[in-house]
Design brief:
single chain; mainly alpha; Arc Repressor Mutant, subunit A; 3-stranded antiparallel β-sheet; 3 strands
Length: 99
Amino acid sequence: MIWAVPVVHLARWKERMSSLATVPTTEQVERRILDQIAALNVRSGEIFEPLRIHMKLQQQGLRAAEINGALQSMGDKGWFENASSLKFLKLTDAGYAAI
């Protein structure tokens, strides 16, 4: 007996496999985060909500662990600092320069 796999299912499988095989580097995720910050027109010294960016990037296919790792790396580089609460971050001069 020959098993026939519908072309639609095969295309979906190939798409999933190609996305699994491609793991972005921390630098690539950082760039995408910076692009999102720039799209929000955040300037140096201004406060932004990282949750909005996090959700947007997850909708684009990035995993939470990849985003969190990049945010941690960016914080370590001094690109932003905690604002008045943990829900908000403040973009530093160094972070703005990286945009």
